[in-house]
Amino acid sequence: MLVPDEIRCDVCGRQKGETNHWLQCITQPAKEEFPAIEGIGFGPIDAPISGTDVKVEHICCHACAVKRFSQWLGTLNTVERKIA
Length: 84
Ligand SMILES: [Zn+2]
Prior knowledge:
Elements (H helix, E strand, L loop, with lengths): L22 E6 L10 E6 L10 E5 L2 H22 L1
Antiparallel strand pairs: 1-2, 1-3
Bound molecules: zinc ion.
């Protein structure tokens, strides 16, 4: 039985096991054109990621993906309030 290198969910801390329903969450720093907006995306855990300035987090399930997206929306609201 081969267990992948110890991978833990960046939202809930659960350790990855044999099943592979995990996702990766990719965040990208704000660009010059849109300094207030940081991008976020989700994809399969084994999808190749390109780009040197992206941050990759491991997500164990859809519920944690929703939580992570909600956190990101929260930071966006903070940014909007700062601009207003
Ligand atoms: Zn999780």
